[in-house]
Structures are given as structure tokens and as C-alpha cells.
Amino acid sequence: MKQALFILIFCLPNILNGQTWDWAKSSGSSNVDKGNGIAIDRSGNIYITGDYRSSTITFGSTILTNAGLEDIFIVKYDPAGNVIWAKSVGGTNKEICNSIITDSIGNIYLTGYFASSSISFGTTQLNNILLRDLFIAKLDENGNEIWAKSIGGQIMKKVMT
Length: 161
Known about the structure:
Blueprint: H1 2-17, E1 33-40, E2 46-52, E3 56-59, E4 62-65, E5 71-77, E6 83-89, E7 95-102, E8 108-114, E9 118-121, E10 124-127, E11 133-139, E12 145-151
């Protein structure tokens, strides 16, 4: 057991340091930005979601504008790390996207909550009942809304995929 542990401790740093990076990107704003979820689709595209507090946040050449206190961002990178598109969802208060997944045909699913009186995913407007309402949204591979639903109630909630 001690020998196996010694080998693991000795070899692990070499294994971890021996990896090569394909690419690394930095995006952000002048305030607090958080990445809360990451997903990869069948073509190797990378989707990242999170939230930001600044008036704007930049991904590549795309600038997203905050509508309130804290808004959601969704960004899609190609396998080489280039920004394909970036979108923002938000209202006058705080919106958080906790997680993101993709399905086998390229659709994107988001879950989170919103404290604004309403938020919109494309043409679908979700209205808040009380405090924080949950949402689940389905987008196509281009970030366009297919549908979005909210779940309301009187207690604080959190949903994750």
C-alpha cells in the first residue's frame, strides 16, 4: 500500500504537468463574472453559461449589455476556441443560470432562477410569481429559444441539470 501511494504521489505531478493545452481564452468585465456551467456538443463546440454584474461583458467581438443587477450569459466556442455567438438573458434584478447541457441533436438546455418581475428567452416571456422563480429553457444550436418554462412559489429555490 505504501509503495503504491509513493508511486502515485511521485508520478501524478508529472502526469498533470505533461498535458498540453489546445487553447485558453479569457473573457470578462470590470466586475464580478462567474462561469457556472459548461457543456460540449457532438461536434466539439463548447458552451459556457454564468452571470455578470457589470454593465457589459465581452466575448470575442460580441458585447453583451446587462439589463439589471446580475444577468445570465451563454457563449458558444468552436473546438478551436473561437466565439461563435454570445447571448444575454436578464431583467431588472438578479438572474442566475446554474447549469447547461446539450442533447444528441445539438439542442441546449439551461436551468436557473430569476428574481426580476420577468425575463425573456427570445419571444417567450417568463413572469415571476414571488421572490425567485426557477426556469428551464431549451435553445437550438444557434442560441435561439425553442421554449422556456418557469416554476414559481413562495420559497427560495435552486435547480441544476
